[in-house]
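Retro notes
What went well: the complex prediction finally ran end to end.
Inputs used:
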Amino acid sequence: MMRLDSRDADFAAAFAGLLSVKREISEDVDETVRGIIAGVVSGGDAALVDYTRRFDRLGEDFSATSLRVTPDEVRAAIAACPADALDALRLAATRIEAFHRGQVPGDHMATDEIGVTSGWRWTALESVGLYVPGGTASYPSSVLMNAIPARVAGVPRVVMVVPMPEGQMNPLVLAAADLAGVSEIYRVGGAQAVAALAYGTETIAPVAKIVGPGNAWVAAAKRRVFGQVGIDMIAGPSEVLILADGHANPDWVAADLLAQAEHDVAAQSILITDSSELADAVESAVERALATLPRADIARASWRDYGAIVRVRDFDEAVPLVDRLAPEHLEIETADPEALAAKVRNAGAIFLGSHTPEAIGDYVGGPNHVLPTARSARFSSGLGVLDFMKRTTILRCDPAALRALGPAAIALGRSEGLDGHARSVAIRLNL
Amino acid sequence: MMRLDSRDADFAAAFAGLLSVKREISEDVDETVRGIIAGVVSGGDAALVDYTRRFDRLGEDFSATSLRVTPDEVRAAIAACPADALDALRLAATRIEAFHRGQVPGDHMATDEIGVTSGWRWTALESVGLYVPGGTASYPSSVLMNAIPARVAGVPRVVMVVPMPEGQMNPLVLAAADLAGVSEIYRVGGAQAVAALAYGTETIAPVAKIVGPGNAWVAAAKRRVFGQVGIDMIAGPSEVLILADGHANPDWVAADLLAQAEHDVAAQSILITDSSELADAVESAVERALATLPRADIARASWRDYGAIVRVRDFDEAVPLVDRLAPEHLEIETADPEALAAKVRNAGAIFLGSHTPEAIGDYVGGPNHVLPTARSARFSSGLGVLDFMKRTTILRCDPAALRALGPAAIALGRSEGLDGHARSVAIRLNL
């Protein structure tokens, strides 16, 4: 863990160092992934089954007819879920849906004074593929966060893929898919699943866009199929930045720093405070909390390698630091968190006040937990309904409007050396 | 040019062939581009000047102090523009700005029945880089289409780069930059300009996102700096799809097909009609119009290699074909174009009726002319104000709200094996 103080002479350099730390180990899997995609494109179901048998350690009885998860399997999974977790998932689904309904954009058409009608309309994508990781990173909450905005957008076909290594699956993931209105579920994963979604096989019809997190193979496959289909962002390790003053509870702050750190050894937790007392108290509280945390090995490595406590003179000094870090998650525990939040330009999601731990937002707050990482909140947004819709602009001129605008279009077409453009207008005006 | 008829036995295969035609020659410039980017990152201004001297054939007198275009140069350029083109640019800028003002999104905050306050706010990107090609593809209209939405979004710093090979520049491009409110202009291009925008040099401060069209080097550089900065779509060759019935004027339709074809030998113009008479008449009209078109060589090659006329039984049969083609531009010249447009899901921009040639939309209609190509209208939208803003979600729980939601978050955290998440909630509730 790094301690910085804005009063130190080398602070600018030290903070720049914090900004430029590389937290991702980029595995070079691109050649392997290229081969797998080509295999699925040429081999279809047979190739998909073959890769899945090999990578997910399945036997000869796994065949093309095993790919799709049946409604009976979904029902059985729901029956196998603990009641409290299922109730919690239902509450989460209801709140996520309510929040995202407010994001559905409106269409717009208007006719101006010269008779030009123009505007736009939003339409849902015709189909979306949702990648869900298997094993320990198989989070039912992420199924809700990815699938619900797609359904709210009006996507008629939401296809989920989830690997089930050795046949193992998390029943809560299937329950979440059912709650979120997923249309089809296939038990495949890795680059082979991404290839199947992008190009289609005999069993899996192709989709228009692929979303959802995955490992290095999945990320490389998504980059490679981009263009053939749309993709969401490529998510990096998770981050939290907490702004807290001397009134904050150090144990609560430490708990929030560790909730982030427990995700991944490459996660990053940063505290910026104007109080050296809080800084010291949080540093101790983190050590105390680590002593009993089940995922302490992961959290300790993250905190040691990428954690930071930054002391500033005041929070006005913190604002430009926040904008440069552009954190995925920003918690503000100061006297007037709204006022401070209003000064910040770059953050994926903001959590206000001491009773809004980021974990509430991970599950049941309502806003999406798929958020821009690695400083990309400078130029991008968290997942939402707009990611599952696209806008078509519409233009209509009546003859009088064309007469009014035509000469300018002709002049610009000619000035750009595009005489054919000018002619397509002129021919309608007998010019 | 390919003629298809939906009544033919091999139509499905022929149409699938039309869909899968590869129109882009992908030059493998990735290694060269990687070297240039690394050069600018390590060498700054000196490397940028060096590459610019070499690629734009400039002499020793071109130095770091020559990089920025001065206000005097901009004033001189405006004075050198033909008055009719300048007036047309002003009209275009006014209309583009008015259209895009309607796209500025609203913020939203609400408190629900259990005391959770949530919503989002939109903020403009802090800075944007606009790439403008030099030479024949240097279009002042594209400067307006890229820069005006950024200014409407509220981006405080809009930086334009435009190569000026052998010192040559198009005065209308500088005039358009001035009209659109560009803040800084640098006379650099290619991968070296993209690198300077992404990483910064002594003279050019880095930006948060890079937009605008470019050649293979520029496209490869944009792909490579993605993540460090945001980028817009990578545009492919332009396309038009025209739906026209037997009442359409074949000379007008032909003029519109050629206005697209004259862009590039890889451009694509397609007519779908229910009238074999119109199909024949348009085919003849294209040949007649080509005889006098200045860019006939380009347009003829595009029409020959990628043009198509598709005859359908009726326009209901055409709708799924349109959705599969997902054209950048869709013109509808039928009896009730609105009704037909309402059935289409996938198109970048729609032009309704026989008095709305696509060229009007290229210049002065108001909607943006930067649109998704190569079937990407299935999952993406044209350029707009939202491309220059990002959304931050906001969540605030009061103590009662945390008590209401906390148990569900704790249950989900534990079910996902993330005990630290559960603890960050439980510690605040003394659970």
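What we learned: Chain B has 16 helices and 14 strands.
What to try next: split runs per interface for comparison.
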